[in-house]
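ok trying this again, last paste got cut off
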Amino acid sequence: MTYHPKSEFMSVMMTRGFLADCTDYQGLDEALAKGAMPAYIGFDATAKSLHVGSLIQIMMLRWLQKTGGKPITLMGGGTTKVGDPSFRADERPLLTEEQIDDNIAGIKQVFAAYIDYSAAPTGAIMVNNAEWLDGLNYLEFLRDIGRHFSVNRMLSFESVKSRLDREQSLSFLEFNYMILQAYDFMELNRRYGCMLQMGGSDQWGNIVNGIDLTRRVIDGEVFGLTSPLLTTSDGKKMGKSQDGAVWLDAEMCSPYTFWQFWRNTTDADTGRFLKLYTELPVAECDRLGKLDGAEINAAKVILANEVTTLLHGRAAAEAAEATAREVFEKGGLGDDLPTLELSDAELSGGVSIVQVLVRAGLAKSGKEAKRLIAEHGARMDDVALSDAGLMLDAAALSEPVRLSAGKKRHALVKRAG
């Protein structure tokens, strides 16, 4: 695709690697050039926080605002009750309204770090699709909206087709999700003049449905734009680490752990991630990404610092870097490390090292902890652990100790109080 954009936002999307596809490059570009375009991305409330896998969408909204657009963050209070089946092998567990509301409250806190919700012309707005979905009358909805959808066409979308091709059940509840998402786009256009829906490339079919519905029902001109579904160069899904999802909530993933995730980026991904997840100039991202040897490690520290600063602030990024330097270069404890505190009551009878490794987040299970010890992958204060039956008591923790799993994962263990 050789289209040369006029608008700053489209230029950013293309040069920094955000753009996978667009329904009408030229039409969207011309509409963006007129200024202050409202655009949205939807986020279902399936957990108390978003994770790194959602960060590419959050950065798209941030760039939209920085280039003169008006972001709309749509919380899926209604659609979460259904569950998006796109490219999933099974049905999502259904959540109660209380769980969904609790999750939305947690997710809201993340957005404030990236997007300005002030009353400025480009100030973002946050809305919940439960406002219009909860009150829908089923028969009226079928007559007014359902008649515009072709089941044949819906079955042809890759997100649904891949599920059916594997002969895995797709409930009627889930099948309605794309209709509800299409209705969201139309409703946002009607209420807020929203002209653009963005999302990952797995949302292409849902976005196209929303564009068609908006044009058919209210004759609105709207557009769709998708970002690539990111995997790391070694094929792993973006946002996952050895310990599971890398959350954007500081209580679920400490700033140090978050920083360390980015510091551990593979060499091949460094330049690409600098362009997507930081605001450094593209030329600088390309230069840093081409470094090798010890120099690429310095580029990864820059990546970790820039991404952590955007989410947690510059002080948290500097503290994380200082802790990493203390742990890796000087062999110190590192006050900013994830910390497990054990009470004197627990320590009076002794706590097994296997249990401590699991509770400190260095192993997912006792079995994995025992395997780490057997393979000499677990260390305490840089001394390899060899006895899975070791018990820690108050005397052993008269001073804090550093536990390590492999070369890159560390935690501090100390007595409470």
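PB: full thing came through this time. The mean pLDDT is 86.
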